Amino acid sequence: MAQLKGAAQLRKYLADPDKIVVCPGVHDGLTARMALNVGFDALYMTGAGTAASRLGQPDLGLTTVDDMATNAGMIAGLDRNVPVIADADTGFGGPLMVARTTEKYILQGVAAFHIEDQVTTKRCGHLRGKELVDVNTYCARIRAAAAARKEMGSDIMIIARTDSLQSLGYEEAVRRLKAAVEAGADVAFLEGMTTKEDMANVVKDMAPTPCFLNMVSGGVTPLVNADEAKRMGYKIVIWPLAGMTAVYLGMRDFCRELKSTGEIKERYTEDGKIDGGVGDCFELCGLSKCGEFDQMVGGTSFAKGA
């Protein structure tokens, strides 16, 4: 099987000692298009955002592998040169199911995904009351993903996430991550850290394995900017709620305006143009490129414009 362009690019980023990958969380085509337009090196498909946008449900393990893989594939397909890192929850079952999940993510063009050690009925890593599987079950998930990757001839990256810090403490969390790396994971992800001390220490304790940092607004982990994360030694930092929070705030305000006034007033840029109109949205999603492609191959559907 041909190697994934996104995975190869992500591996190059991680091999660069001066590089830190900062990913905005995206959950649909529009939020992904905006992040690509701004010029991010990589994107993160959030599981919480996928649950909220596709199902209108909280992040409580309600999404299926098809919900997640299909959404990740759509996002990855917008630009194959930009790596997409995707949430894969617990792998959605036992080792056989984890292997199937891995195959689906590979076929969808995902560059990397993370698998955690919660029970199948999982919850957001920044909620209370998380339940865990034992370390052997966790490592079986990682080995299943690694075996499926090898069988597919893929270079997709496996990120091992542990949610054990909350209930089992730091030392056990690091032990689990080291066991996961031995089982075939490429990157370590300690979720739910509550102090900068733990944030800095896990990078040192997991070296030379690259570490992954999750920045959740309103969550339990102290927020740091990219420069501080880089000084700590992190290689990947995600802001998973970027898209979801923007939609939440924007849609809330527009709906309140429409409900209270009966209209939504147009917004304008500094140079007097309508900001965020239908033309802007369509152009962001590739309107001109579609027309150019149609004409290039001899089509006439857009000869008079669109």
UniProtKB/TrEMBL annotation:
Which superkingdom? Eukaryota
Q: Kindly state which keywords UniProt assigns to this record, in alphabetical order.
A: Kinase, Pyruvate, Transferase
Q: Does the keyword rRNA-binding apply?
A: no
Q: Which reaction does it catalyse?
A: (2S,3R)-3-hydroxybutane-1,2,3-tricarboxylate = pyruvate + succinate
What single Pfam family name could you report for this chain, choosing any that match? PEP_mutase
GO molecular function annotations of the record = kinase activity; methylisocitrate lyase activity
Family, per the entry?
A: Belongs to the isocitrate lyase/PEP mutase superfamily.
For this protein, the record's PANTHER family field holds: PHOSPHOENOLPYRUVATE CARBOXYLASE (PTHR42905), PHOSPHOENOLPYRUVATE CARBOXYLASE FAMILY PROTEIN (PTHR42905:SF2)
Q: What is this protein called?
A: Pyruvate/Phosphoenolpyruvate kinase-like domain-containing protein
